[in-house]
Amino acid sequence: MKSFSTIALYLGLLVPVTAQVLTPPNGASNLTKSSSKGSNSGSGNTTINRHESASPSAQGEEIPIVDPTAKTFQFQGRTYSMMDNNLGGQFEAYLASQDFESKAAVEYREKIGKIQDFLSPLNPGGPNLKSAYTLLEDASDYPGDGGICDSLANSVYSGRLAMKGIGNKKEAIAKLDKEHRRLVHNLNVLESKGELGGTTTVKQGKKTTTSKAAQSTEYKVMQKRLAEITAIKKKYEASGIISLTQSKIQYQAMMLQLFIQRRFEHVVMSARFYNIIYKDGDQAMRIKKGSDTEKFFSEGLGVNPTVAGLDAAANEAIRKSQTLISAFENNVGSNRIHAGSERLVEAFLVGEFTPCVQTVSMGMKERIQQYVQDANDLVEALSAKELGQATELNESLKTQARDYNPSKATSYISAHKRASDGYVRDAKFALFEKDTSRAKVAIENAIKHWPANPTIQTFNDKLDERLDQGEEDSDTLTQTVKEFDRLLADKNYRAIVEEPRKSKFVVVFGQTNDEPRIKQLTEIGDSIMEIEKALGKSQSLVEAGQSYAAWEAIFETQNKYYDDPKIANAKAQLIGQVGNFTNALTKAKRLEDGGASPQTGSALSWYLKARDIYPQSQFAKEGIERLVNKQF
Amino acid sequence: MARRSRRKKSSNPAPVIIGSVAAVLVIGLGFVFLKRGDSPTAKEFPLATYVESCNSLRGSEYSITGEIVENAQHDPNVGKFIFLRVDTGDQTISPELPQSVGIMVPSSVKGPNLETKQNYTFVVDVRKEGSLVASSYTAR
Fold it and tell me: Do B106 and B50 share a structural domain?
């Protein structure tokens, strides 16, 4: 608990300054607000508040938390996000970088270690300030140091100069003391010899002093010098104290800055330099009263911070990083990549510049990088409702890490897929019921839940097919109607009722509810049937040798459907056999109907002639009856 | 020859002559009457023309002889309508042409019973639309 509190303390310091994401819990908003305000005003950093979307998802939860950059921790009633997008980017850069394995990096870390050794009280012969300082200047050449060693070296140099100046003043004060003592002795000697002169009354403010005034010039000079020495001594003492305090303040500020930057090794080095430079045992940290830093230390630990405390905190951070890295390596070794990634993130956050973090092998980092990248991609895919890709990533994460919990993502994906498929079904129903508005809304909802839903594409493809089919049907319809009308104009009725043309007409006219053409088609069908019936009867009579009867059987039908080629042909063939009969009937009819001057007598003779040829002639019989009746 | 011989045997020739004249007149008048009863003025029926264009014969009177093939219709108030197969006699008629005609025998025309398959001679008038109406008829 103590270690967590300690690391949280560090992180609490780091979060506002390094622009960490601050996500306060509900009810702590005032606290956060003041903290953010103070942080912003004090350091100029930006605090980003990340709020989850309030829109509920299908299963009551938002996107599952598999994003390592969204991890949070609590400290003193506040919730802090461990990483923001920027730091997430830094972490990804860390995972992808091989710079930490370069020769220069290795040498740099070796130099830092040696500096710490030189400054250690356990160094043989005691702390070696000069060697440490020389190596510090050397280490600052490494680009990855970022000039931190150079800054530290400058502070050390500045402190040394300040301390040297103070030393000079001390020597001057000592000389003044010595002169002061000599003058006092000389004055005592003069007084004892009675060489002072007359009595003098001196009035200083309300106080009146009566003394023997020095009358000799030498005595007066000595007195004046004594007063000057006292004044100079006080001035030297005052300026020396001020220089020391100012030097410590500047150095401590640099230490705090290093701590905030998580340059914990530099903090340790600076603390050891401090003890060597300022040997007065004063380790109290001079932090501005009421500042966030002061409050943090005083409220967190309940004591005023010291240089030694800062040193201990830095060492604790280094140790914490080592612990986290060790846990990370164990997790990766047991294929618990999810936990491993979290430990590495924590280690990176706490001690980004510590050797243990920077020396993680590239192979391990690649596994974490793949996992983190896939996790980030999964979050993005889920946000964009790319459920197909999200499913693949979710499966990939399961494969990569045995401790990855895919249930939330799976549930989220399944819910949205089901919802989308349901809406597609609704759209199909709506189209089936010819409710295009409802279909449109349904398909829009389906797209919202899963834009890349393949069933939506299938639905659209089928819709396109139906539209194309509709256009094709429309063409077919037009062509069919034209064909029907053309055949009708040509009086080619038999072609109209020939299969499969007739079926096509029936289907098309039925689809379009073309009542007039349906009626025409029905009438044509009936007519052809009547003709065929007559032809059938005629054929039977011909086969029975009754050609006249056969002719009569088709005569009326042929007259009715005179433009039917089949019956006309049948009638023409029969005429060769029954020519005299038909000739008599034709003449009879022509004479009977003779316009304005019918010739009934002649007609009757011809009807009788026809009857003579075919006594059962119905036509002859009817003609005869008709004409006979005219006589009565 | 017989008449000449009877004239030579008569003593009073005047009565004989008068009687002869009278007899001749009677015979002559009888012949005239007899000839009038047989419609001796009716022309032979032109069947070929009739079947082709009966209206062209309208208003004429003809004598037709033939066999009744059918009593088509009978109305006592109007008459009887028969179909007669015409005996063309010496006329040459194409076999393709009709041989029968229809004749209306009004009730007012008296004569023997008209029976089918019996031959009769009809004096007919050609009326409107070429209809044949008998004015008299005799059995043959």
Answer: yes
